[in-house]
Amino acid sequence: MVVAAVWWLAQPRASSPTLPGYIYGGFSLSEEYARYYRKPLADDALLAKFAEADRLCSRGDYRGAVALLEAISAVVPLPVVYNDLGVLYAELKDKSRAINAFREALARDLGYQPVRANLARLKGQIDPNIAEPVSQEVEPNDTVLLANVIPLGQPVEGEIAQGDDSDFFRFTTPPAPRDLMEVDVMNKSKTLVPMATFYDSETRLTDWRATASGPGAPLRYEFSPEPNSVMSTRIRGFANSAGGYILTVSAKHAFDAHEPNDQIMSTTRIGVGETVKANIMDARDTDFYSFIAPASGKVKIEIKNQSTTLVPQLSTFTPDMRASGFGPDVRKQGADLTHEIEVTPNLVYFIQVWPALDSSGAYELTVR
């Protein structure tokens, strides 16, 4: 299977007439996948579909290429896929779908140069401003299927015009590693009590929700969905309240510099005697580390709490990645943890730092 994937990537760009603005070649898909998902694209069938879309496009079968790319976008919603869809729809004179495709790409990367270049090239056909992710709500957006596409970090003005009004907005979470997201609803009225609920990529209602404390109060809510996932939020008024607001959905960059290391197969290697600064971002976070055992045959693992909230826990693993024990059962917020284990010199051992009692916070780790 790997050989097949390499073969697809090694194929030359289409020798037939090329469509301006269309990005040919499987490397672009694989490169973006690795950047957004932090792992290589190993799906040969997906690469084959992307290559087939190239061939159909080169032969002028734009509708066939669109069908393949739409199917690909449902699996890997990457800017390169939406860029190519936008170019194809523009060639097919389907202006609304071209705008939507370019907007989807910009919602994931507001400065995505291929789309910016295409919008400049097509400005006689498509108004570049229309393709921008919205900065003010566009009605109708009162169902999840009509959600306005918005980028992260950009304020969007909206208004709950009457008690039964709802505004839906769709956004894409950042690439891996998983991050904390913040929804900030700045209240512009003295009457609105904003409420926010969230829907996953399948438009299913999630358990994430929040309500402001009262009329005129702002709403701020943190949650942590999976990276590179499509989410929607519904903004409405509690108890039929109404009024204007400004919505901003942003990533907090709350993960530490060693992420992603939340699996034993992707550990952070540390040296004996080295102190590592890290954090447990939320109750779902966990950090794996590995080290080479010194000649002494014994090591001390120290976790020094750098917060008043974290309740640290420790698990240890043998060189063959089997669980070998736990550190002391800490139950106090802000407490430190120390644990000793016997080791065989020059072998690699693994440790896991994780939170108890749904806690989070910063810590320092040292293996001595």
Structural description of this entry:
With 368 residues, this protein is an alpha+beta fold. The protein folds into 3 domains: 2-131, Serine Threonine Protein Phosphatase 5, Tetratricopeptide repeat; 144-251, Jelly Rolls, CATH 2.60.120; 264-367, Jelly Rolls. 24% of the residues lie in helices and 30% in strands. The protein has helices at 2-10, 26-37, 44-58, 62-75, 79-91, 95-108, 113-121, 128-131, and strands at residues 148-149, 156-160, 166-172, 181-187, 194-199, 205-211, 219-223, 230-237, 243-251, 268-269, 275-280, 287-292, 298-305, 312-317, 323-326, 337-342, 348-355, 361-367. A 5-stranded mixed sheet has the order 1-3-8-5-6. Strands 10-12-17-14-15 form a 5-stranded mixed sheet, with no helix packed on it. A 4-stranded antiparallel sheet has the order 2-9-4-7, with no helix packed on it. Helix 1 packs parallel to helix 3.
Q: Find the structural class using helix and strand composition.
A: alpha+beta
Rounded mean pLDDT score: 92
Helix content: 10-25%
Largest sheet: 5 strands, mixed
CATH superfamily of the largest domain: Tetratricopeptide repeat domain
Extended strand count: 18
Total DSSP helices: 8
Summed up, the domain count is 3
User: What fold name goes in the CATH topology slot of the largest domain?
Assistant: Serine Threonine Protein Phosphatase 5, Tetratricopeptide repeat
Q: What is the level 1 CATH name of the largest domain?
A: Mainly Alpha
